[in-house]
Amino acid sequence: MRELAQKMKASPPFNQAVFALNPKIDSKGQRRLQCSLRFEDVFKYLTLGADKSRDALPTLWGVPFPGLVLSTPREFGPQTKR
Fold first, then answer.
1. 0.90 exceeded by the pTM?
2. 34 pairs with which residues across the strands?
3. Which residue blocks in the chain are alpha helix, DSSP H?
4. Where are the domains of the chain?
5. Rounded distance, CA 80 to CA 82, Å?
6. Are 15 and 9 in contact (CB under 8 A)?
7. What are 4-55's pLDDT values in tens digits?
8. Which of these, 10, 45, 12, 5, lies nearest to 26 by C-alpha position?
């Protein structure tokens, strides 16, 4: 399934899209689609004329953003059989 998804991703129209499609298929049978938008394309299509430089005091929807968000990697517990 993973090989088929990668083959589709590399073919038109998917390889010509603004959004990159990233199929996520794991060994436990989970299937999902992660979509990515390149940084440059955000400014090209969504925020025309916006300044790309780093903000000294960034905001998110008008609310000041506090800075780095510290987090630890995910931890997976023992696997259970279904």
1. no
2. 22
3. 2-9, 39-41
4. 2-48
5. 6
6. yes
7. 878 888 888 888 888 888 888 887 878 888 888 888 888 888 888 888 888 8
8. 5
